[in-house]
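QUALITY CONTROL LOG
STEP: pairwise intake check
CHECKER ROLE: data steward
CRITERIA: each record must contain a sequence immediately followed by its C-alpha cells, with no blank fields

ENTRY 1 OF 2
RESULT FIELD BELOW
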Amino acid sequence: MGDIADEVQPKKAFGWAARDTSGVLSPFTFSRRFSFFLFMLSFILLVYLEAFWKLKWFLILIVCRATGEKDVSFKVLYCGICHSDLHMLKNDWGNSTYPLVPGHEIVGVVTEIGSKVENFKVGDKVGVGCMVGSCYSCDNCADNLENYCPKKIFTYGAKDLDGTTTYGGYSDIMVADEHFIVRIPDNLPLDVGAPLLCAGITVYSPLKYYGLDKPGMHVGVVGLGGLGHVAVKFAKAMGVKVTVISTSPNKKKEAIEHLGADSFLVSRNQDELQAAKSSMDGIIDTVSAPHALPPLIALLKTNGKLVLLGLLQKPLELPVFPLLMGRKIVAGSLIGGMKETKEMINFAAKHNIAADIEVIPIDYVNTAMERLLKTDVRYRFVIDIGNTMKSTS
C-alpha cells in the first residue's frame, strides 16, 4: 500500500535520509502523505467507467494532489537535531525502518491548508514536534495527552494513517493534521524556537505536572545539555530556585553566569552532595547515560520527586529503602500533549526563553552527528533547511 502511494503521489519532497544502521545521511527524494482513500475511490471509479488511460491517471493525480481537508503543509526553514535522532539513525532501540528521514523539531511557514483547516492560514509561522497523529478517541486523547495515546504516530519512522511511512524535518516540506501543528509566536525566532518543540516540552511538562513550578521551590537539573539548559531556563522563569547537577566542574560558570542557575553541584563530589542532602523539592534528570540514582534520591526532601527524562538503553538500579524513608517518588515523563505544547511555546515567547544553538548547513549534518555523539555541542544543533537544503523545484 505504501509503495502504491509513493508511486502516484505528486507532492514530492526532498530531504536527507539514512539507508542503514551506519546512520550516514545523504540526499533522498520521497513523497509526503496523501489521501489513500481518495486514490482508491478515484481509481475504482475511473477504471469502472473505462476512462482513457492517460486521462484516468491525470484525474487520479488531481484528486490526490490536494492537501487533506484538515492538513497544513509548510515550507521547512529550520529543524533541530535531537539526541534521539542519533539513536534512531543507528537503530539503537531496534525499531528503526529505512530509509529514515529524522527530525521532530521542525519550524517553517505555511504554504497550503486543507479546506476544513480553522486555525491556520498561508504565511503563518508554525512548527511540528514529535507527533503527527493519534487515535483521537482513547482516554489519553480525551485528556489532551496524545503523547500517551497507544496509537500515537511519531513524526518520523512510523506508519501514517494512509499506510505510508512518516518522514521527519530534515526535508524541505512538512505536512500534518492541524491538530498537531503549533503556531510559533512572532517574537520567538524560528531557529532558537525549533528545539523547544521537543527539548522544551520534554522539560516543561514534568515541571508543571509534578508541581515543581511554584515560586520558591528548589529544583535540581541533572545534566547541562540539550534538555538540561532549557530546563534551567523554564524553571527560573517559573520563579524556582535551580541547582545544576553535573559531572563536569567546568560547567559551573556557564550554569550560573550564563543560564542563571542559583547553584551548582559536582555529582562526584561527596562533600557537595552531603551538604545539599534533603534540600530539593524535585529533580529533573535529563541524562540518558547509565548513572547512579541513590545520590540523587538523597538530595530530595520528604515527598520529593525525581523525574527521569533520559531514554536509557539499560535498566537503572532503584533501591527501595530511601524511597520509603522519605515517601519519595521516582517517575518518568514523555514530551507533552498538544494543548500543553502550545501552552509551553507561548510561555517561552512571553519569558524570552530560547534554546542555545549552533546553526549548521544540511551538508554538515553527518559531522554534527559525530560531534553530538561526543557531546560536542552547545547546546543544540539546528539545521538551516531553508537556506541550505537543495530545492525539489
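ENTRY 2 OF 2
RESULT FIELD BELOW
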Amino acid sequence: MDVRSENSISSSNSGNGVHVVRWAKLPGQVIQRTRLQIWFIRVCSSILIWTCLVQLVAVGELWHPKLFSGFSNPINGSNRVSNNVISIPAVPPPPPLPPPRNYISNGFLKVSCNGGLNQMRAAICDMVTVARLLNLTLVVPELDKTSFWADPSDFEDIFDVGHFIDSLRDEVRIVKRLPKRFSRKYGFQPLEMPPISWSSEKYYLEQILPLFNKHKVIHFNRTDTRLANNGIPPYLQKLRCRVNFQALKFTPSIEALGNKLVHILQQNGPFLALHLRYEMDMLAFSGCTHGCTVEEADELKRLRYAFPWWREKEIVSDERRLQGLCPLTPEEATLILQALGFDQNTQIYIASGEIYGSEKRLAALRATYPRIVSDCP
C-alpha cells in the first residue's frame, strides 16, 4: 500500500475465526476536514449576520429614518458620484394649518374692490376684518377691471388664493364662490350697496349685520376706505396686519419675477426704491397740477370728469397743495433725498407706473442721481 494513500488498511482475526478489515484515517485528512468545517461555519455566520443587519436597517428606517442614515448614505452617495447625479435636498413639508374657527355664519359677504392694486389690497384687509367681526363667510374678492389701469387680472392671477383661504381659516371662513342657490342663474338677487366710508365697528354691528338676517348675501360694490383706521379693537387691527403681511401672498410666478428683479439690482450694489406717486390718475384724482403746463392741467381735469365715481370735479390745485394733500413733485423729491444724505452714486429704482410728463419731469432727479433704474418705458 502506498504510504501517500489517504487511508491505510489493517486486518486481524477475531476470536471466532472471522477476518476483520479496518480502515484508519491519516492525520492530514483530519486537519483538512476540520478546516473545511470552520470555513463553512464562518461563511454561514457571515451570511446570517449580514441578513440580520439589512433587515434591521430596513425596519429601523421606517421608525427612525435619521438614526440609520449613516448606514445608507455612504452607499447612496457612492452611487450618486459614480453616476454623476446631483442629489436634490428634500423640500420641507409645509407648516400645519391652523385649526378652523368654529362659528355659525350669519351670511355671505361678496366684495368688489376698486382702485389700484395698493388700494384694493388695503380694501381686502378691511373686508376680511369686517367678515370676522360679523361672523360672515367671505367670498374671494373681485378685483377692479374698469379703473384707470384697466387691468384684467383676477384675484388668483395676482395672489395665491389657496394660501389666502388656508392661512385665515382660524379667523374667517372664505370660499371661492357663492353656493349655487345664491347665484343669479337661479334668480337670486343679493343686496348691493357701498358701506359708508371710515365706519367704525359699531356701524357694521348695528346697521350692516341686521341686513344679513334678511338678505343672507350682501355685495359691497365699493370697498375703498370703508373701515376706520383708528379707534377699532386691537384684535381687528392685528387681523388687518396679518392679512396684509401673511395671507396676501403673491403667486409663485410673481414672487420669482420680484426676486429676479431684486437680484439684478443687488448685483450693482445697494439701491433705494422710490415711489413718487406721480402718475396720471393720482394727479387727476387729487387735482394737483403744480408744475404742469396749462395743457396738462386741462388733460387731468378731463380725466377726472370722465370717471363718475370721482366725486370732486372742481379742485383748486394751490389750495389742495397748501393743505398738504398733494404728492411731492420729482423736483421736490430730489431735494428731499439730498437733505437725507443720499449721494449721487445712489442707485434708485423708480417703483411706480409711468411718471406723468415722462423724462421732462425726471430731468432734475436724473441729473442729481444718474443711476436711475425703471421698468417703465
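INTAKE CHECK: passed for both entries
DESCRIPTIVE NOTE, ENTRY 2: DSSP finds 13 helices and ten strands in the chain.
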